[in-house]
């Protein structure tokens, strides 16, 4: 019988993650709920912070909801859930207005008789201009605004540098209650110790898993923590083979890579080879504004077929004032590396950007485990299908945080908090040995190299099997580390990344077709019926 004790932290709602999903959910819950929001770095550090483009919603009178729905379905190449797409698009304007009412400033085109007309970008896959933005730093504007609001709220306790280790599930700790999540074990990075948090409900808002690849536009927090935690808790995951590679990531031989927003192409930037040939005109009638899977594959093939390091983005035909007005952050950042966006063509390559699959949830964000929810990039809702359309991601986060908040207001009074929980060491008997950081760094590089070389923009059956074999070896090795050595920030990161790598590979092997972001040479065509790839815990090796 496990010995239970009082936890280190206690709350009604535990939110893991500090991007737009977690922050907006926290702000939508009433004043009388106690909320703890933990984040693995500083409160501002999240994928949201680096979102340049904007958020999609129908604000233009020439645009319409049906068009937004249709564009999303086309981009998703048959795998979107129509009901979910309709649900999100129909609630888009209300949720974006909530952001505006909370102080987020989007660029304005004009004001006529008191009516604000926002400046709207057009991005890949969209039929109309429908991207609200704040210059080229929309995510920065949203993140800072919401963080400032959250920090002032008396019932929201922010804990920085805290990593989720695992969820505490009632049946795994011998509690005589129906199976549900009752809290989480957390790693305090500053104190280097394991802490316990009990909660009525736990919300995973941890973002995606793009860091599993060598080149990514996302920050170090994008390690797939929530997906891995939910999987270990017994939740199904879906469509993890669909990893979106953003077509335009600044290429630098020393690894100083960062995102160059799709809005650049929306405002007329073109893609060219070193010989200045504009190759996208040969690939798709939408050229540079084709969906991201098409553009990324085209770039990858140009690089491979011409034996070149990169291709180039060219917006030099636009005026300096236009560049300064619309892309001031990108302009300044490129200058640091010796490139002038108004005069120079910019070297770019595709980079891992967005995880289109994730933890399976319903329209309220409910997972397979009672009292456990997932919102944002960590989740699989059915919105993105086989390829996310640009700027639908922040929208999904907003709509699901709104939907979940309404649900939690109804159910929280009926959930009993369990405030006697076992300590982590009572469940996991860890031996106390130190582990070299050099070993962990070497293993991390191996994971990312295997994924980039074998499970990238284009795959083969042979490359997937090779990756599966080697990732399984690494996973067994890292499991031994986890069970026999002191915990550390890096060990926890790598434990989750190798789990995510395994799930992506299993998902890719199961799909015997090329659809959207998953292109495999042996199966170049679409199957007649589009079906999600669903993985169930304890069945992957069967």
UniProtKB/TrEMBL annotation:
SUPFAM superfamilies registered for this protein in UniProt: FAD/NAD(P)-binding domain, Succinate dehydrogenase/fumarate reductase flavoprotein C-terminal domain, Succinate dehydrogenase/fumarate reductase flavoprotein, catalytic domain
Reactions listed under catalytic activity: L-aspartate + O2 = iminosuccinate + H2O2
GO cellular component terms, semicolon-separated: cytoplasm
Subcellular location: Cytoplasm
Gene3D superfamilies in alphabetical order: FAD/NAD(P)-binding domain, Fumarate reductase/succinate dehydrogenase flavoprotein-like, C-terminal domain, Succinate dehydrogenase/fumarate reductase flavoprotein, catalytic domain
Domain FAD-dependent oxidoreductase 2 FAD-binding: 12-394
Keywords: Cytoplasm, FAD, Flavoprotein, Nucleotide-binding, Oxidoreductase, Pyridine nucleotide biosynthesis
Swiss-Prot/TrEMBL GO biological process terms: 'de novo' NAD+ biosynthetic process from L-aspartate
Annotated function: Catalyzes the oxidation of L-aspartate to iminoaspartate.
Protein name: L-aspartate oxidase
Lineage of the species this protein comes from: Bacteria, Pseudomonadati, Pseudomonadota, Gammaproteobacteria, Enterobacterales
């Amino acid at each position: 019988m496990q010995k239970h004790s009082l936890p280190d932290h206690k709350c009604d709602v535990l939110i893991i993650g500090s991007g737009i999903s977690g922050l907006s959910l926290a702000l939508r819950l009433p004043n009388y709920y106690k909320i703890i929001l933990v984040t693995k770095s500083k409160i501002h550090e999240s994928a949201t912070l680096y979102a340049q483009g904007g958020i999609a919603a129908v604000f233009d009178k020439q645009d319409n909801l049906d068009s937004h729905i249709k564009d999303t379905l086309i981009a998703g190449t048959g795998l979107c859930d129509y009901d979910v797409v309709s649900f999100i698009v129909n609630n888009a304007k209300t949720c974006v207005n909530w952001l505006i009412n909370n102080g987020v400033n989007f660029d304005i085109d004009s004001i006529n008789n008191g009516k604000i007309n926002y400046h709207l970008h057009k991005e890949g896959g969209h039929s109309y201009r429908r991207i609200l933005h704040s210059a080229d730093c929309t995510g920065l504007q949203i993140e800072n605004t919401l963080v400032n609001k959250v920090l002032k709220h008396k019932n929201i306790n922010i804990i920085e540098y805290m990593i989720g280790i695992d969820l505490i599930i009632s049946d795994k700790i011998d509690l005589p209650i129906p199976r549900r999540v009752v809290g989480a074990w957390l790693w305090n990075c500053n104190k280097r110790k394991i802490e316990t948090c009990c909660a009525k409900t736990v919300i995973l808002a941890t973002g995606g898993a793009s860091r599993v690849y060598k080149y990514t536009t996302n920050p170090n927090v994008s390690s797939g923590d929530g997906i891995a935690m939910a999987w270990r808790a017994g939740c199904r995951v879906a469509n993890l083979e669909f990893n979106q590679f953003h077509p335009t990531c600044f290429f630098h031989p020393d690894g100083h890579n960062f995102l160059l927003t799709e809005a650049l192409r929306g405002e007329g930037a073109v893609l060219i080879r070193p010989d200045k040939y504009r190759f996208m005109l040969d690939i798709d009638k939408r050229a540079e504004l084709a969906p991201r899977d098409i553009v990324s594959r085209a770039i990858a093939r140009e690089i491979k077929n011409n034996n070149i390091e990169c291709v180039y983005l060219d917006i030099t035909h636009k005026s300096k004032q236009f560049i300064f007005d619309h892309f001031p952050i990108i302009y300044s950042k490129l200058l640091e590396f010796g490139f002038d966006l108004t005069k120079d063509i910019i070297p770019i390559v595709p980079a891992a950007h967005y995880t289109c699959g994730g933890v399976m949830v319903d329209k309220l964000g409910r997972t397979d485990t009672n009292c456990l929810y997932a919102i944002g990039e960590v989740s699989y809702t059915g919105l993105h299908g086989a390829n996310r359309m640009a700027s639908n991601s922040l929208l999904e986060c907003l709509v699901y945080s709104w939907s979940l908040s309404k649900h939690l207001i109804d159910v929280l009074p009926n959930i009993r908090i369990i405030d006697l929980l076992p300590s982590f060491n009572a469940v996991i008997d860890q031996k106390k040995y130190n582990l070299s950081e050099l070993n962990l760094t070497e293993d991390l590089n191996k994971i990312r190299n295997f994924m980039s070389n074998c499970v990238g923009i284009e795959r083969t059956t042979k490359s997937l099997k090779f990756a599966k074999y080697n990732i399984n070896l690494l996973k067994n090795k890292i499991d031994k580390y986890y069970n026999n050595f002191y915990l550390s920030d890096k060990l926890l990161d790598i434990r989750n990344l190798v789990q995510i790598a395994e799930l992506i590979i299993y998902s890719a092997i199961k799909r015997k077709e090329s659809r959207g972001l998953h292109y495999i040479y042996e199966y170049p065509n679409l199957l007649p019926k589009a079906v999600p790839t669903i993985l169930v815990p304890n069945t992957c090796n069967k």
